[in-house]
Amino acid sequence: MPGLRKAAVEGIILHGLREALMTEEAVAQFRRDYTRHLAEQNRGAADRIARRNSVLRGLEQKRQGFREAIGAGHANPSLFEWLTETEEQLAALRAEVAAEAGTVIIIPEDLSVLYRAHVEDLARTLSGGEVVGRASDELHRLIEKIRVCWNAADARHDLDLQRDLVALLCVADNKKAASYEAAGSSLQLVAGAGFEPAAFRL
Fold first, then answer.
1. Which residues, given as ranges, of the chain have pLDDT below 50?
2. Does 113 share its domain with 174?
3. Residue 120, SS3?
4. H helix runs in the chain, sequence order
5. Could you tell me the maximum CA-CA distance found in the chain, to the nearest angstrom?
6. What is this structure's pTM?
């Protein structure tokens, strides 16, 4: 295909990052989809919690029995082994409970505003001498793929700018970046049409 000047592409990519990839409408649709997704996920939460609590109580009772037996002088290698195994099961189950609780995140109301301000700052920093490299790296983190096709019929280049949804959310709301990354697969699942690749033509 005919070549494409870097300067021409940079400007339109910045425009796409700033305006097209996280519009207020797209964020609103995503928030609705994500809320619905959470409701579906949590539909069986009460049953899961009840089952886990029942298992936890059983394991705690078993552990207490082992401890009382050891305290009464009935210690033996098998008893210590069973106690250790029970402690490990309790720790694993509690870790599961904590992990599930940590995957529920709240999408901030001004997400698109925060994101756009961040990209604006990066765009200004691209002419900042010593920090231009870091700003460029940060922009690259927001872009998953740029697909360039030559449209022979119209004698133009078509660009599809594709994003990493979790990266967009992380930079928009960096206080919750760890939460977004932890819930990455769930967030990507409900990205919806609002986060389709942005298309540009040169």
1. 202
2. yes
3. helix
4. 6-15, 24-41, 45-71, 77-102, 111-125, 132-142, 165-172, 177-182, 184-189
5. 89
6. 0.49
